[in-house]
Design a protein that fits this description.
It contains 19 helices and 3 strands. By secondary structure, it is mostly helical. The protein has 2 domains: 272 residues, Orthogonal Bundle (ABC transporter involved in vitamin B12 uptake, BtuC); 142 residues, Arc Repressor Mutant, subunit A, CATH 1.10.10. It has a 3-stranded antiparallel beta sheet with strand order 1-3-2. Helix 10 runs parallel beside helix 12. The C terminus is likely disordered.
């Protein structure tokens, strides 16, 4: 069992991680991963200014005033990035780097002024940078609960619109959706996460939980709905895991452990994620290369062999082909001898080929001939498409078709077959 303080910390950071992961997914899909960092750093001068003004009018360290100041300058930072992009030829990364540096420098300067004030030593504003996760209070819990609820409600209510905005902003505008307002709402939602997270957990934790869980979710799925859910779950687990590890090792800072847990989740997803994981991408690439090699072999067999001279009484007789020498196959492609032998042996085991003579010749079986004919037909389909639709020179069309023919989908194959048959190119044998 864990004590009450640890329970408050775990619940608070879990809620913050879930909200940050859900909102950060759309920021990542909008290719604005650095924008969360920009807004987080841009919130610092707002906090310092709010403290200076509040102290001047006798309010002191007022949490609502600090939140308003942080939100104002965070949104000002986001607007500054957008303004620089509109008014100059700078790209997003350059604009965000400029705004981040300017606002962060201003924030550090203002924090120096705060520290020189009589009340500055007790203000505790440095916690906004490094966080004080292990000493969260019930007030932090309620503020994060309110902020996370608002963020998750916005994510659910505007999921379809934000998804459309992330993937095709021009189409969003063309169908009459208010893309500018949707983008402003996304930035405002991001600002809510930053404001409540900075007060409760600090800048370090907020920046990490905004993008890292979303990046991990991107490696696990390509569907936006599942990506949001996975990112929220990873964010919550990172917060809870870091808080629990810190409770068992008091000398280690909880905020840093939350960040490390999130980074560990990203590392695991990067290795074994079903969508973009290195392991699965390598496996898919290996399978594709193996399929390409065997399709090259089958097409070479079909092109080098001639139709059988026997009477064509049935389908198997129509598919019968003469044997092909292994030497002619070696000259057809850049195969090595052992690699070609291995490919042939595999097709023999699958029943698509049979050896002839002293293993110096090989012939297609009826099932292998049918598959080879299909591979050859797809190649001809791509040649037809590239010649007539893409204006590729006939002298280059075979090479280009050879590159792309292996990734055809069934719908496109059917369409190309209809086009080829309509032009009288259906007979391939």
């Amino acid at each position: 069992m864990i004590d009450w303080t640890t329970q408050v910390v775990v619940v608070t950071v879990s809620l913050l991680g879930a909200a940050a992961g859900a909102a950060g997914t759309f920021v990542l899909l909008r290719r604005r991963a650095l924008l969360g960092d920009v807004m987080s750093h841009a919130a610092l001068p707002g906090v310092a200014l709010a403290f200076i003004v509040g102290t001047g009018i006798g309010m002191g360290r007022s949490l609502p005033a600090l939140a308003i100041g942080a939100a104002a300058t965070a949104l000002a930072g986001a607007w500054s990035v957008s303004w620089i992009r509109r008014q100059t030829r700078l790209r997003d990364d350059a604009a965000m780097a400029i705004v981040l540096g300017c606002f962060y420098g201003l924030g550090v300067a203002l924090l120096g002024i705060v520290q020189s004030m009589p009340q500055g030593q007790q203000a505790g504003l440095t916690h906004l940078l490094l966080g004080h996760v292990a000493s969260m209070t019930r007030v932090d819990l309620w503020s994060v609960l309110l902020g996370a609820t608002v963020v998750l409600l916005f994510v659910v209510a505007l999921f379809k619109e934000w998804r459309l905005l992330c993937f095709d902003e021009a189409f969003t505008r063309s169908i009459g959706r208010p893309a500018t307002r949707l983008d402003a709402l996304l930035m405002a939602t991001l600002g809510v996460v930053i404001v409540v997270g900075m007060q409760a957990a600090g800048l370090l934790v907020v920046v990490a939980l905004l993008i890292t869980p979303a990046a991990a979710a991107r490696a696990c799925t390509v569907r936006a709905g599942w990506m949001v859910a996975i990112a929220a779950a990873i964010g919550a687990a990172s917060g809870a895991g870091g808080a629990l590890l810190s409770s068992s090792a008091p000398d280690l800072p909880a905020g840093a452990l939350c960040v490390l847990v999130a980074c560990a989740a990203f590392g695991i997803a990067l290795c074994v994620g079903p969508a973009e994981g290195v392991l699965w991408r390598g496996l898919r690439r290996w399978r594709l290369e193996a399929r390409v090699r065997r399709e090259h072999l089958l097409r070479a067999m079909w092109e080098l062999s001639a139709p059988s001279a026997g009477p064509a009484r049935d389908r198997q007789a129509l598919l019968a082909r003469t044997p092909v020498s292994v030497a002619s196959l070696l000259q057809r492609r850049t195969w090595s001898g052992p690699r070609l032998q291995a490919l042939i042996r595999r097709e023999v085991r699958m029943g698509n080929m049979r050896w002839g003579g002293a293993h110096d010749r090989v012939s297609l079986t009826p099932p292998g001939a049918a598959e080879a004919r299909s591979v050859e037909r797809i190649h001809r389909l791509w040649e037809e498409y590239l010649t007539r639709r893409a204006d590729i020179a006939p002298s280059h069309v075979d090479r280009d078709a050879d590159v792309i023919e292996h990734v055809l989908g069934p719908e496109l194959v059917a369409q190309l077959e209809r086009d080829l048959d309509r032009r009288g190119g259906g007979a391939l044998a």
